[in-house]
């Protein structure tokens, strides 16, 4: 597949593109990244886990994971005794999650659903989270944030991790020698991979302003922003993430926000 950047509005049916790609290549992705584990809550390619960062509320209540993939994070939460539900837009990934639940003996609800159309009543969950899921595959963060706000209870928490917005200006390389700006920050172009003229993969870069404004306009209050550095002892390279580049700049943005209590 040939990678390129195209105007975001020229990418048709991004939900369908994301679902089809993960249906087709999701299991290969899991095989390529065994560090994700099966019962593990990892927030970022740097390797930071929920045990490390403790970002979820101490009493998270009823929890929803969106863009769950094979639901490793939800499985870990279930192992800690929490009430969790997981969604993903890919039927193939949800099938894999079902298989891994059967294999490990865990049981919790799994739903095929996109982040902009969640199959739940309003004010259902105390905590919603995603670890590198869903948000990179939507052109506009606003509708996603509005839907998450809808399903959260007043006072509930919305916590997510994404590719750091500044990372998009550099080549997709883990080495500091390649840190040369190749793309304007904030340019509204999607990263796409195409074959025979057909878009097979698409991600949509969002700026820090896109995140902050989208949250504010949806009614959220931002509680904390993290830009975790590269942890000592991790020598793994994962796409553009690696110890060489990671020593120079953050590759991940983590945001914690709340729906106001009243």
Please render the helix and strand layout as text.
Blueprint (H helix, E strand, L loop, with lengths): L1 E6 L6 H19 L17 H4 L8 E4 L6 H8 L3 E6 L2 H14 L5 E3 L12 E7 L9 H11 E12 L25 E7 L2 E6 L4 H11 L2 E6 L16 H4 L5 E7 L4
Parallel strand pairs: 2-3, 2-5, 3-4, 5-6
Antiparallel strand pairs: 1-7, 6-10, 7-8, 9-10
Helix pairs in contact: 1-4, 5-6
Give the distance, in angstroms, between the N- and C-terminal Cα atoms: 49 Å
SSE string, helix = H, strand = E?
A: EHHEHEHEEHEEEHEHE
In total, how many beta strands?
Answer: 10
Question: Radius of gyration in whole Å, from Cα?
Answer: 18 Å
Query: Mind describing the biggest β-sheet?
Result: 7 strands, mixed
Low-confidence stretches: none
Main β-sheet, spatial strand arrangement: 4-3-2-5-6-10-9
Which of globular, elongated, flat, extended, rod-shaped describes the shape?
A: globular
Number of helices: 7
Can you describe this structure?
By secondary structure, this protein is α/β, with parallel strands linked by helices. The chain has helices spanning 14-32, 50-53, 72-79, 91-104, 141-151, 208-218, 243-246; strands at residues 2-7, 62-65, 83-88, 110-112, 125-131, 152-163, 189-195, 198-203, 221-226, 252-258. The strands form 2 sheets. The chain has a 7-stranded mixed beta sheet, sandwiched between helices.
Would you summarize the structure shown here?
By secondary structure, the protein is α/β, with parallel strands linked by helices. Helix content is 27%, strand content 24%. α1 runs parallel beside α4 (91-104) and α5 (141-151) packs across α6 (208-218).
């Amino acid at each position: 597949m040939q990678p390129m950047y195209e105007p975001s509005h020229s990418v048709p049916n991004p939900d369908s593109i994301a679902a089809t790609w993960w249906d087709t290549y999701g299991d290969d992705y899991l095989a390529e990244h065994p560090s994700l584990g099966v019962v593990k809550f990892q927030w970022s390619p740097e390797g930071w886990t929920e045990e490390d960062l403790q970002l979820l509320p101490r009493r998270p209540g009823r929890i929803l994971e969106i863009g769950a993939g094979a639901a490793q994070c939800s499985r870990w939460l279930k192992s800690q005794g929490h009430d969790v539900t997981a969604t993903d837009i890919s039927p193939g990934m949800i099938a894999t999650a079902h298989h891994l639940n059967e294999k490990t003996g865990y049981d919790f609800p799994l739903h095929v659903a996109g982040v902009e159309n969640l199959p739940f009543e309003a004010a259902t969950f105390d905590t919603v989270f995603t670890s590198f899921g869903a948000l990179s595959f939507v052109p506009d963060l606003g509708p996603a944030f509005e839907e998450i706000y809808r399903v959260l209870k007043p006072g509930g928490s919305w916590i997510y991790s994404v590719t750091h917005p500044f990372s998009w200006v550099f080549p997709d390389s883990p080495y500091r020698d390649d840190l040369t700006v190749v793309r304007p920050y904030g340019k509204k172009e999607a990263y796409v991979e195409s074959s025979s003229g057909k878009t097979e993969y698409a991600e949509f870069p969002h700026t820090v302003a896109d995140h902050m404004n989208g949250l504010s306009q949806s009614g959220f209050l931002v509680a904390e922003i993290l830009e975790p550095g590269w942890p000592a002892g991790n020598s793994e390279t994962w796409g553009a993430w690696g110890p060489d580049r990671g020593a120079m700049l953050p590759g991940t943005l983590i945001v914690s926000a709340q729906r106001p209590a009243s």
